[in-house]
Amino acid sequence: MAGDGSAATLESTLRDLVRTLEPGARLPSVREIVERHQVSPVTVGKVVARLSAAGVLVTRPGSGTFVAAPPARARARRPDTAWQSLVLAGRSVDLGALREAPRDPVPGTISLSGGYLHRSLQPLSALASAMSRAARRPDAWDRAPAGGLPALRSYFAEATAADVGLDDVLITTGGQNALAMAFRAIGAPGDAVLVESPTYPGALAALAAARLRAIPIPLGPDGIDPDDLRQAFARTGSQLLYCQPTFHNPTGIVLSESRRQAVLEVAHAARAFIVEDDYARHLSHDGGTTRSLLGHDVHGTVVQVTSLTKPAAPSLRVGAIVARGPVAERLQASRRVDDFFVSRPMQEAALELTSSPRWAGHLNGLKRALRDRHRILSDALRARLPEWEPVAGKGGGLYLWVRLPPNADPAEIVRRASEQGVDIESGQRFFPAEADGPFVRLSFAAAADSVALEEAVDRLAPIGAG
């Protein structure tokens, strides 16, 4: 990515290589690495030293560099905890669809699953610099304001392109935390919540944990239909809609401009809130973004959640909720009850990153990379797996939502893909009720590069229709 140092890129590449090798395997020589990756011997030496210090590699003078053996772990005696099941009965946290969430792939597997950028797409050098500068601030370890650092709140307020100020913004530990807080603040146990179908499984899990009932609204090429929404509000008595109007996960669909105003009017007439998940604001493939629902809202209907995690890195757990009126006061109170405030060093690092010129450079580079990856994966599917039909998104996001042949079993397809060394996700877990067909979700942002994307489709080709 633009702005990243060659050392950071090489380190990411070597870490990926190590995952495919057994402990004790020998790495290519310094000369081979220099020639293959077009870096200097000094850079190779620095990266090898860093990975050796981290316990990833072992260097043996005169012999070479080798994959380190995993550290031995002493076996601890586990207590008998069977009694806990009786005490906790009836108070479980229902993970729902998250039980099938992607796990770390085995060595040699190409990942087309998960919701984060591969390290090759992350602004690693800029992140490291931001963390370093943040840690050197004299007040870095002081208590942060409950609502978040004012400068960071101002950044999120400005990014909405809506008529909001920093007092309307509450900093959170990522988008998932923001969703959970919003659902708990607005809904009461047993309430019905309208959701697009399909939708983000993490939202379904957060709704289930808050004892809220997800009611599906079908999603069309232009998003949810305002007439369907009006009928659903009337039929269920719901006072909350959760939606992803921009580059919807998993489909990539964008709620049309004409429907945005209509959806707001329907929700306002029902005296209902809308939780707008704006996770993909920085994931456009052409640089353009549609005005958010929050940007159209004049009644305080919309509570928007957003995050820096998706366009930056999984462990930059910094997000925000934007809300106005009494619901904002309730969210502020929830923050104080839950955990007082979000880690100040993490907020300072997020502020350092987003205020740096390198952030704009990263976003521009990310836009181009995602556009190219989307094209490469789509072209490869058309050439090698024509029976797998991607749903046409609108030029943004991280995924392809792929319809399988009518009789295909997504779970079996996922199992066979794993046998071929490719991690993909069944579409079933994205539906709050029955699925309207067999689908899989493919992430073009999770693989190391375009070569890996094409190799993944080559491995999937023998599966065909399942």
From TrEMBL:
Assigned keywords, A-Z: DNA-binding, Pyridoxal phosphate, Transcription, Transcription regulation
Segments forming domain HTH gntR-type: 3-70
SMART domains assigned: HTH_GNTR (SM00345)
InterPro entries in the record: Aminotransferase_I/II_large (IPR004839), HTH_trans_reg/aminotransferase (IPR051446), PyrdxlP-dep_Trfase (IPR015424), PyrdxlP-dep_Trfase_major (IPR015421), Tscrpt_reg_HTH_GntR (IPR000524), WH-like_DNA-bd_sf (IPR036388), WH_DNA-bd_sf (IPR036390)
Lineage: superkingdom: Bacteria
GO MF term (any one): DNA binding
Sequence similarity: In the C-terminal section; belongs to the class-I pyridoxal-phosphate-dependent aminotransferase family.
Full protein name: Transcriptional regulator
Organism listed in the record: Actinocatenispora sera
Species classification: Bacteria, Bacillati, Actinomycetota, Actinomycetes, Micromonosporales
